Structures are given as structure tokens and as C-alpha cells.
Amino acid sequence: MAELLSKDEFRKALEEAIKGNHSQKAPFTVAWAEGKLERKHFARWAENHYHYVGPFADYLAYIYANTPEKYTDAKDFTLQNMYEEEIAGDRHTDLLIRFAEACGTTRERVEDPHNMAPTTLGLQSWCYNVAQRENFVVATAALVVGLESQVPDIYRKQTPALREQYGFTDEEIEFFDLHIVSDEIHGERGYKIVLECADTPELQQACLEAVRTGAKMRRMYMDGLWSTYLQEDLGALIQA
To answer: Which CATH architecture has domain 7-235?
Structure first.
């Protein structure tokens, strides 16, 4: 039987659960950072990414509803995260669509679910399932630690190329700059909630498995973009 880990041990185990499947190492991310993509590839990414992150406030709403009243800090964090996604300043999906339009696609194509790859649908469906069905702390581990906390490292690798090699303006890539900052904060708060609220060995192990699966699901999504939109164009690129 697993023993209750200390917070330091648990934090390290959560971080280790992401390594190996971190999407920073995905071939699509590497090709992006190395300037090997074209704007049409960014457009296809945006058309898919919208259907993963667009419902993020919906995922969080299920987590919020499943969080017992006594976990005030967790409920406050989830509510604030929803607010930032949908109401505070520019709606995050509008910033994503602005980038998509700069890449040559349209709002209509981005919002059309028929334009997402099967692996994108798989990630979206998994997010809904976890948010609705799992204990709130396990769902927070899956979506905030396993997925959202990866974003700053991924976008720090991709964003310089957008400016320096592809010539996008600051306004066109505001989506990325915003998430480098906001998701670093969200990721840390997510870790804090999981470390404090997963207070049994069983919950800790469930959180670790959820984070591990979340990292695999996001990597599956990125690899699906590679195989669907880039394999033929960039087949010679060595995969990470």
C-alpha cells in the first residue's frame, strides 16, 4: 500500500509525471521553434487548439461544481481561472482567433468543429470526462498541473520564432504572451491546491496518474497535429 508522501516528495513526483511526455519536446513544437513551419501550419494548429482550449472554462465549471464548500481557496482559484478565460480583458479565444486570422484562416473555420483532427477531439473529450467525473483535486491535477502548467515552457520556446522569423506583430501573438504569464501563475496555484487537498495516499496516487495521463493526452494531441498536417511536408525532421 502506498504511503502518504510529504509535500516536497509529492511535488517532485507530480513534476516527474509530466517529464518524458512534455509537449515542449513534441516534433510539432520543435519544428515551430526552429522556424520550419509555414503560416498555413499555424492556421491548422489554431483551428485545432481552439477546440481544446475554447471549452476550458466549461471544464473548470464542472470542477467548481464538484468542489465541496469547505475548500474555499480551491473554489476561488477555479472561479478566477474561469473569469480570466472568458471575461477579464480580452476573451482568450478571441486572441487565438486573431492569431489564426493573421495566419490566413477565418473565424468560421476556427469555430467549425469539423476542422479538428481526431486526436484533438480525443483530448477535448478526455478533458470533459475528467472534469465531470473525477474528484475535484484529481481533475485539478489533470487539467491544471498536467496540461496548463506545461504552457509557459512550450510558448517560451515557440514565441521568439513568431516574432523574429515569421514577423508577427505583438498584437497578433498576444495570445502567447498572455499565457506565458497567466498559465505560470495558474500552474503554481494548481500545484498548491493539489499538494494541500490530496491528503490521502489514494488521492495522491490518483493525482499522479491523472497528471501522467494528461501529459500523454496533450502529447498525443500534438503528435496528431504532426501526423495530420506536417508529416508529408516535413517528414525528414527527426522526431524527439
So the answer is: Up-down Bundle (1.20)
